[in-house]
């Protein structure tokens, strides 16, 4: 065989091998993306809910906006009951939770919190004739709560410290939706439901209930009161993810994305103040 031909074939083989090798190295980029599973119960409208078989809501769409700017991750949502949302983050099944999650001291020991996503006044939904300004006005009244959440803990503490002004708490299953809590007030099954102003107002408007929403003076409160967060685990990878998410949240705050999503899903400007974007999570 002609020496030039042999040399040409050899060079072609080497070049082709180099090209193929280069392709082999570049191709796994997408497959090497780390999958991030975000847990939610899709039962806390307007933060997370199902609409036309699609998962949506403020927390959900904000999560999608965050991960659009984190191409190294592949985002996946897992709809599951509320109790499993937190336990799943705890055992590493999920890397993140987006579920209208509030801050509690107990949770803070086990989980990492993002920068705040939104802020809404703690309020009560009651019948129009009921006057409520402080917790004292709720003495002897009945309400339904979910054990372990911020509202339940606060009311339990109030009852313990004020036995003569205690409220009657009925503990509900985690699968019981907020809409049912509000419906029970409308029907007279309970006297009030305490939650955030945004959610209560939207539910009453959507269901056309004859109820009113009153912000309630809680006195001296923890600085986390009213804020909504993403939750993460606390190992090294979780902290890395949390830092990246926080950095993007700041960008989305500055470019107006958070404000637009708040207007669309929460019905107004309920994003934190600029100074609260750092202080509120400490």
From TrEMBL:
Keyword annotations from UniProtKB, A to Z: Signal
Family annotation (InterPro entries): Solute-binding_3/MltF_N
Keyword set includes Heme: no
A Pfam family hit: SBP_bac_3
Stretches assigned to the Solute-binding protein family 3/N-terminal domain: 35-269
Gene3D superfamilies, A to Z: Periplasmic binding protein-like II (3.40.190.10)
Alphabetized SMART domains for the sequence: PBPb
Cleaved signal peptide residues: 1-26
PANTHER family: AMINO-ACID-BINDING PROTEIN YXEM-RELATED, MEMBRANE-BOUND LYTIC MUREIN TRANSGLYCOSYLASE F
The protein, known as: ABC transporter substrate-binding protein
Species of origin: Pseudolactococcus piscium
Lineage: Bacteria, Bacillati, Bacillota, Bacilli, Lactobacillales
């Amino acid at each position: 065989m002609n020496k030039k031909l042999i040399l040409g074939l050899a060079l072609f083989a080497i070049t082709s091998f180099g090209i193929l090798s280069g392709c082999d190295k570049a191709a796994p980029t997408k497959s090497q993306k780390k999958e991030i599973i975000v847990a939610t119960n899709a039962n806390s409208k307007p933060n997370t809910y199902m609409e036309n078989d699609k998962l949506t809501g403020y927390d959900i769409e904000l999560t999608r906006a965050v991960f659009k700017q984190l191409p190294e991750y592949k985002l996946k949502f897992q709809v599951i009951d509320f109790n499993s949302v937190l336990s799943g983050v705890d055992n590493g099944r999920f890397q993140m939770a987006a579920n209208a999650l509030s801050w509690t001291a107990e949770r803070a020991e086990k989980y990492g919190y993002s920068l705040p996503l939104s802020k809404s006044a703690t309020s009560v939904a009651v019948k129009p004739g009921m006057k409520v300004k402080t917790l004292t006005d709720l003495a002897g009244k009945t309400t339904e709560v979910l054990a372990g959440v911020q509202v339940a803990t606060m009311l339990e503490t109030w009852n313990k410290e004020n036995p003569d002004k205690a409220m009657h708490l009925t503990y509900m299953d985690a699968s019981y939706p907020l809409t049912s809590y509000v419906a029970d007030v409308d029907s007279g099954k309970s006297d009030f439901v305490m939650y955030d102003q945004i959610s209560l107002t939207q539910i009453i408007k959507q269901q056309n209930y004859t109820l009113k929403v009153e912000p309630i003076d809680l006195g001296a409160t923890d600085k986390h009161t009213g804020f909504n967060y993403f939750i993460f685990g606390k190992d090294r990878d979780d902290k890395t993810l949390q830092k990246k998410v926080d950095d993007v949240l700041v960008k989305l705050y500055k470019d107006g994305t958070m404000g637009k999503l708040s207007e669309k899903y929460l019905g107004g400007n309920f994003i934190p103040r600029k100074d609260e974007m750092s202080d509120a999570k400490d």
